Amino acid sequence: MKILRINTRERTYKYEDMGEYAGLGGRALTSRIVRKEVPADAHALSADNKLIFAPGLLSGTMAANSGRISVGAKSPLTGSIKESNSGGMLSQKLAKLGLAAVVLEDKPEKDAPFTAIRITKDGVEFSDAPDREGKDNYEYQKVLDEAFGGKATVALIGTAGEQCLQASTIQFTDPFGNPARSAGRGGMGAVMGSKRVRCIAVDNSGAKGIEYADKDAFKAANKRWTEILKTHPVTGQGLAGFGTAILVNIINEAGALPTKNFRSGQYEHAADVSGEKMSELIEKRGGKVHEGCHPGCVMQCSQRYVDENGEYVTSGFEYETLWGFGPNGLVHDIDLIAEMDRVCDEKGIDTIEMANAVTMAMEGGLIEWGDGPAAKALLEKVGTDDPLGRIIGNGTGSTAAAFGVDRVPTVKNQALPAYDPRAVKGVGVTYATNPMGGDHTAGYAVCQNVLKVGGDVDGMKDDGNVELSKNLQVATASIDSTGMCLFVAFAVLDTPDAMQVLCDLLNARYGGNITPDDALALGVQTLKDEHSFNADAGFTKHDDQLPRWFKEALPPHNVTWDYSEEDLQAAKTF
Amino acid sequence: MKILRINTRERTYKYEDMGEYAGLGGRALTSRIVRKEVPADAHALSADNKLIFAPGLLSGTMAANSGRISVGAKSPLTGSIKESNSGGMLSQKLAKLGLAAVVLEDKPEKDAPFTAIRITKDGVEFSDAPDREGKDNYEYQKVLDEAFGGKATVALIGTAGEQCLQASTIQFTDPFGNPARSAGRGGMGAVMGSKRVRCIAVDNSGAKGIEYADKDAFKAANKRWTEILKTHPVTGQGLAGFGTAILVNIINEAGALPTKNFRSGQYEHAADVSGEKMSELIEKRGGKVHEGCHPGCVMQCSQRYVDENGEYVTSGFEYETLWGFGPNGLVHDIDLIAEMDRVCDEKGIDTIEMANAVTMAMEGGLIEWGDGPAAKALLEKVGTDDPLGRIIGNGTGSTAAAFGVDRVPTVKNQALPAYDPRAVKGVGVTYATNPMGGDHTAGYAVCQNVLKVGGDVDGMKDDGNVELSKNLQVATASIDSTGMCLFVAFAVLDTPDAMQVLCDLLNARYGGNITPDDALALGVQTLKDEHSFNADAGFTKHDDQLPRWFKEALPPHNVTWDYSEEDLQAAKTF
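^ Those are the sequences you sent over. The predicted structure of the assembly is below.
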C-alpha cells in the first residue's frame, strides 16, 4: 500500500511508501498523519492543514461492510482534530488502487480555478474542474459523469465547501450514482474548498486490486463474519426494516428525543416522522425500503425515499436528520424533512449541524418554531450570495451568535445529535469527552443505555456511563480504522467470537497475527493521537463538558446532567 | 461607598456594603466581581453573566484625569474576562452618588421590552426605554435628553448591542452631550443588550458628593499631580496638539504601521491620514483641535472633527481608528474615515474590531481593497435587518469565517490594533499574553519601543520585551483601578515621584497609607484574578500566542515573530 500525496498549489503528486505509517488505516491513519504533520495551531483553512482520505484496513476486500472511508484534517468548525466517516464507492476503489491514503497538501491562491483531480492506476490527472454554473451536487455529479466517462466515482464538495463554510461536507457517490453519502461532520468540505479542489474522481480500471496474505483464510473468516452480521437481530433485520429511523419511536418512548432545542425528551408527533411511517410511505409510493451505502453491505440500512409521485427525493435519510429537522424544531412533515435532507446533500452541508442551526434561527426569532418551509428556505440560501447562507452554513454556533442565542447545544462548537444527554448519559459522556466535539458515533452508548445490546447500563443514572463511553470510544476508534461500518458494533458486542473474526480478516489480508487486544490497543493509540493534538491546539478539561443549561431537568423523567469535569476526564484516561 | 445591584429580570435593586470588595475600584473591582460571581463556563449572553460599571478609586474627585470608568463582564467576543475602559461623564457622577459599582444581574425573557434605568440619589427608577424607531445613538441621545430632562448623562447601547453582536460597545455621554465615548472592546454592549437594558441614566443632583479623609492633603497632592501631567512633553503638549493621531507618521516612520492586513509596516499615503493632516483640516474648517473626554482632563487629546462645511462629524477620533479604516485597508480619505468613526459610534460598535472586519471582507473578496465607500456601507448594515450586518457586527473572526479567510489578525478572537507586533514586539507580547485578547492598552510598550518614554527597549528585537510587557501590564492594571486615564503613564514613567503622588491622592481620599508597592501589588492581584478566570474558562498557553502567519517577515525591516509559547508565559508569571 502507498500514500499518495497531492500538492494542490503546484498540481503535482508523488507516491510514498507507508514508512512510519505502516500498519495503519482509516481513522488510525488520518489521525496519525494530522498529529504528525499538521501544526496544532494551524488555521484549518491555511496551507498548513492537510486533508486525508483513507480507506480502512479492510476496505476493498470482499469482507462484508468494509467499504467506509475516513476523512481527516484539523476541523475549521471545532479547531480540534477530526475524522469524518462516510460510505459510498470511493473507499473500495482507492484500496483497489493500492492506496492507503490520499493526502491533499498546501493550497493555491484564493481565486485560483477549482481543480478536478482524477486518480487512476496510471497516476493523477489535474484539470480545471468543469464549470459549475450554480449547479448543486446531484446535477453536478452528472456533469462529472460526462467529464470522466460513464458513472464517475467521486468525492465532491458543494457550494458550501466552495465558500469554505464550517458545516460543509464532502459528498461521495453512492452505488446508484448519486452524491448522497456524506463525510458530514466538522467542515471537511471547507478544508477541501480552501485547497480549491472541487472533486476527486477515482477510477480503478485495470488495477490489480487487493492482495491477500492468505485468500482462503480470508474467505473462511468472511463467511463467519457475514453470518455474525446476518444473524444478529439489529444488523440482520432491524436496520434493513426501517433504517436508523427505527429509533424515532424507540428514543421518544425512552424520553430521550430532544424536542424544541432539548427542552423535552418526548414529542407528541413523533409517530409522524418515525421509521415505521417512512417505510409505510416508501412502500406505498414504490421507493425502496432498504439498500446499502457501499457494495458488500449486508445490513442495507439506507433507502430510496420517493415523493407522492414516486420520484426519488433522497437516500441515507437517517434518524438524526429526521430528529433534527423534525422534533427539535417542532416540525412533523416527513416529506418536508426528506426535502431538507436532499437540500443538505445538494449544498454539501451536515444535516446535524444544519438542523441545530435552524433551531437557533427559531430561538433567535428569525423564523417561527415549527415552520418547516421557512427552515427549508434557510437551507437553500447556503452556498448562494445571500449572507444569511454564510451564517447558517457556518453552523449552530455561528447562527446562535448572529441572533444572540445563549441556549446553544454544542460541544467544542459542534452541534449535538439526536439523543438527549441527560437521558442517555453514556452518549452524553461521549459528546463531552470524545476528541471530535459533539458527536454520537464516537461512542454510541445508545446500545447499552436504550437498546440493551452489548450490555445494560441505565442511561438515566450516572453510574457506569463514563466507563461505558470510554470503552465504546476505544472500540469505535478501532472499528473506524478497519473500514467497517460502525453498525457492525451491534453484532460484535453481542457475539463472543466477533472480535477474533475481525482479527482473522486482518491477518489473512496482511499476514501477521494481531489479536483483539492489539486491535483495541490501536484504538487507544488513535485516541491518544487525537487528544494530544487537541491539547496542543489549546483544549482542556474545561472544553470536555456540556453547556451549563443541561443542568435543567428534562421532562418527562426530569433527569439532569451532573457530571463534574473531573468525573468526565476518566473517559479520556487510558 | 456602596455597590448597587440591579436585577434586570425583576427590575429591582439593592445597595450593598463593599464587604469583601472593600478597597477595590475600577478594573480591580470589575475583575474581582466577575472572578467571584460569574461561572467561568457561563455563556456570556446568559443570565449567569454580570455586567459591572465601576468608577475608579479616584473618580469623582478633583484629581486631574481621574474620570475613567471600567466596564467588566465575561466577554461574548473572546470568552475571556473583560475590562473595557471609557471616558465620558458617567464615572464621576456614579462616584459622587457614593457608588463603587453598578452590577447588572440576571436577564429577562428575550422579547421583553428594553429597559431604561435611571439612578439618582434617591434610588433607581425603571421604565420601558423610549421608543427607538430606528434611531442611531446620536439621535437617540436627544430622545433621552428629553425623557430625563436637560442633558442626560447615560451609558447607552446602539442597535448592535440590542442585537447582542459581539463587537458592540457601550457608549457614554461626553462633556458636550454626545454619545461619543466608548467602552469599545469585547462586546460589552452585547452583554447589556442580552439583559434588555438600553440605557442607564445617572443624575447626581443633590448628592453629597465625594468625601475626603484629608481634603487639604488631597489638594496639595493634586497640585503636584497636575504639574506632572502638564509639564511632560507628551501629556502636556503632544496629545493636545494632534491627539493620538500624532502616531500615524511616527509609527509609519518606524515601519510598524500595519498596512493591507499586516502585510507591510509602511503605507505610502500615511501623511494623508496623519494627526498633522487632521489638525490642519480641523483648524481650517473651524473645528476644535483639542478637548477632553471628561471634566478635569488636562491632556485634551480628543477633538471636534468637522466636515468641509464646519459641521460636527465625530470626536474621540483615535489613531487606532485612523489606522484601521485607513492604511490597513488601503484607504486614505480622512473625511471618509471620520465618517466611519461616526458610524461606529452611531451603531455602537468597536472601531478596531470593525476596521479589521472590513479588511476581512477585502481579503475574502466581498469588497475591493481601498474601497472606502464600500467599507462604510458595510458598517452601516450593522444593527439593521441585513444579515451581513450581523456577520460584520460579530467582529473580525466572524467576518473571516463567513468569507473563508485564513489570515485573521486576532488573539483570543479579538482583533489586533494598530501596531505591528513584529516591529513593536513589546506590544506583540501584550497582544499575546494579556487577559483580554488582542489589545494594546493592557501594556502599551509603544512608549519604550518607539517613543522612548520611560525607557528604551528595541521593538525589533526579542530581548527585554517580555519583561517590559509584563511590567507594563502590572502598572496598567493598577492605573485602570484608579480611574486615571491610561495616558498618565507617559508622565508617570518619566517622573520619579509620580507613583508616590498617586498614592498620596488615594491616601488623602480614603485614609490609609498605601505605597507604590501596594499599588503595584493590586495590579498583580487584578491580573491574577483575570488569568485565573480565563484558565477556568479553558484558556491555556496555546491561546497566548499570535497567529502563525506573523512568522512571515514584515517589510521594510523584515522582522518576524519568533517567541515560543514558553517564552511568552514569563509575561504572566508573577
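Chain A has 22 helices and 17 strands. The longest strand of chain A covers residues 99-105.

Shout if you want it in another format.
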